[in-house]
Specification:
Layout: H1 10-26, E1 28-29, E2 34-35, E3 38-39, E4 47-56, E5 68-77, E6 80-85, E7 88-89, E8 97-99, E9 102-109, E10 112-113, E11 120-124, E12 127-138, E13 144-154, E14 159-170, E15 185-186, E16 197-199, E17 203-204, E18 218-220, H2 233-280, H3 284-301, H4 307-332
Antiparallel strand pairs: 1-10, 2-3, 4-5, 4-14, 5-6, 6-9, 7-8, 8-11, 9-10, 11-12, 12-13, 13-14, 15-17, 16-18
Helix pairs in contact: 2-3, 2-4, 3-4
């Protein structure tokens, strides 16, 4: 049952205004933001977190609220961290009470996580308890966090404050930094010898941005000695005919190779479309099986693909993998009350 209390005085509102100002200018501190000068990899914090929620609402309820445990998904996008907290019913004697579902989101800058959520957190007897302040800190290894949420309930005449504490731990426990990217270079054969040098252009399929393991792209060679032109005219004609036939053969061979490359590319594109259709229909099992087939076929036919097609299909496979992870997280998250 809600405990009634007198309306806040002007002094109370002044104190709350000061707290609000500190919250907006200070934000929530994120400790252990860097080792040396290395910034935290925000993508490394993504994934499922186990939440243990406890609420001190002794001024609003006649009995204490039992702690509640549930999973939640933390995501990063454009330097913003977002965690969705699902709603659930609260067992409170004599009161119709529900913990509202809501997102905690904000940017990280200079070691601070700015969360400015001021929405509803509880619904008590048909009226909302609204958040006044959020203070969140990560552990130094980024594998756990504590969030202190202060809120206030009011029916327009009486009001009462409360505090909800979230203790969360990462399931993946990947820490603050992603593992070092492993380079994976693809290089074609060296080109023709020109000025005693043969060249080629290599690409890193993992796009690490480093060149520690990059193979050589130049190679010394001996340029061929020019053959003097034959003195008799019929020999020149024979040579021209031979060169013409060689050129036709090379063009035909190139056309066959390009046709095979296009065929492999089209097969993989059809598989990509099938997987995206499964994701659209939220058929997780079909999408996972299709992804396995895609990676196997891509590995087997990677050298048979044109460079631009290989890069495009590799990028699409990364996007499909991310979509599968999001779908898995959605299907494992509880339905909001």
């Amino acid at each position: 049952m809600v405990k009634r209390r007198e309306r806040f005085s002007g002094v109370h509102y002044a104190v709350f205004a000061l707290i609000l100002m500190i919250t907006l200018t200070g934000g929530a501190r994120l400790t252990g933001m860097a080792v040396g000068e290395q910034p935290i990899d925000l993508k490394n914090l993504e994934g499922q977190w186990d939440i243990e929620e406890s609420t001190d609402a002794s001024l609003c309820f006649a009995q204490a609220l039992a702690p509640f445990k549930y999973p939640a998904v933390l995501k990063e996008e454009d330097s913003y961290l977002t965690i969705f907290l699902p709603g659930y019913l609260v067992a409170a004697q004599g009161e119709s009470t529900k913990r509202q579902a809501f997102n905690m989101t904000g940017p990280l800058s200079g070691g601070k996580w700015f969360i400015n959520y001021k929405g509803a957190i509880f619904e008590i007897s048909g009226r909302e308890a609204r958040v006044r302040e959020v203070d969140t800190s990560f552990s130094s290894d980024c594998n756990s966090l504590i969030s202190n949420i202060k809120w206030e309930w009011s029916d327009g005449k009486y009001s009462c404050p409360g505090t909800t504490i979230l203790k969360a731990s990462s399931n993946d426990k990947k820490g603050c930094f992603a593992p070092e990217c492993k380079e994976s270079w693809i290089c074609p054969e060296f080109g023709a010898c020109l000025n005693d040098t043969r060249t080629r252009e290599c690409s890193d399929v993992n796009r690490c941005g480093t060149t520690k393991e990059k193979p050589a792209e130049t190679q010394t060679c001996v340029s061929p000695i020019p053959v003097p032109a034959p003195k008799k005219s019929y020999l020149s004609m024979i040579l021209l005919i031979a060169l013409f036939l060689m050129a036709i053969s090379a063009v035909a061979s190139t056309a066959v190779v390009e046709q095979k490359k296009k065929k492999f590319s089209d097969q993989l594109e059809e598989l990509v479309k099938s997987i995206r259709k499964s994701l659209f229909n939220e058929d997780l099992s079909e999408a996972v099986n299709g992804y396995k087939v895609l990676t196997e076929q891509f590995s087997a036919s990677q050298k048979k693909l044109a460079k631009k097609d290989a890069g495009r299909i590799y990028q699409e496979s990364l996007e499909i993998y991310a979509d599968i992870v999001r779908l898995q997280a959605q299907k494992s998250a509880p339905i909001a009350a």
